[in-house]
């Protein structure tokens, strides 16, 4: 039996509510989040030895720590239909999508395979706690936490990402090679996006508790050195401007359904006779220009709610289950005075000023000031406690979100089923 089976699992703490952004963090190699964002974020790589000090401390007392999530737990999660998982094998390269039965996953000692499991924050509290460490970066940029588990030699090949990523070693060792090369052409005949001409410039072996940050387009290759090697990847979203503009425009167009002024028909009593009937009339252009100015459709402030709404949408794989034996509004209000209400792990909350979007919907529109404050607290602190926010109104948006499974009471075993 190998050592990592015997070691105690690490228990990641939840980040404090108020993160000290100007103080040095072990997670960031003894620099503050403010300095990290200024010097490294989206600019250059950073290797941090002992990013999680608990692993090194445990070694000094001869009680090594293992990953918070065992291989058995990870394989069980990868067997679920609503989990995004992939199995990658080398020599030759092959790629399969889950779900996976236990029998279809190679043994930990078998070489040259990697299992990737996305969105782990929705399936295990340890992963959600690790994500909370990175809330010095806007929530709108956060994607998810992916775990890779591999046999010796396992990896996904040399590649690059179009987004920022923090690679945290949680079990076993992984050898990382990176390059800032400009040649990012891919091998044309492989089932994976593998670089055709990878030229490593730096190389490190990461041990449990170490972390490597990589900005976009840094070529990298990670090879597992031990059986059961686990790397936890905290990834960040980077949509194209085209996607942001298209999604924002679509939602802006939808919002015009509620503008009575736009139901009027175009009228041109001043239109004169023309010798160029093929030309779009100037009067039409003038009137539309006036409407755009009056509705402020030519201003970014009018456009951004649609972008915020889009960025608050949950992942396509997200499934929300209404609570069993749902409370009525009175019971809900009573329980809220005793227990905290928290977002479901797959719920996304994005704030635009004092407006809060939850899973693609404006939850503060038409709500009482107290209710709006409640949503603002949920977005900022990821929890809410106190029945004073809730009116005895079944159409209260907090209560509706609870009934939809978007908000849940914590502690709750349902959160991690």
Describe the structure in your own words.
The protein has 417 residues and is an alpha+beta fold. It folds into three domains: 3-236, Sandwich (Jelly Rolls); 241-267 and 280-311, no CATH class; 329-416, 50S ribosomal protein L16 arginine hydroxylase, Chain A, Domain 2 (Malonyl-Coenzyme A Acyl Carrier Protein, domain 2, 3-Layer(aba) Sandwich). The chain has helices at 3-6, 33-39, 53-60, 71-78, 125-132, 241-255, 282-294, 300-311, 329-336, 369-381, 397-403, and strands at 8-9, 46-48, 65-66, 85-89, 94-97, 113-117, 142-150, 165-171, 174-179, 202-206, 211-214, 219-224, 229-236, 340-343, 349-352, 355-358, 361-362, 407-410. The strands form five sheets. Strands 2-11-8-13-7-6-4-5 form an eight-stranded antiparallel beta sheet, covered by helices on one side. A three-stranded antiparallel beta sheet has the order 10-9-12, with no helix packed on it. It has a three-stranded antiparallel beta sheet with strand order 15-16-17, with helices on both faces. β16 (355-358) and β17 (361-362) form a beta hairpin. The two termini are 29 Å apart.
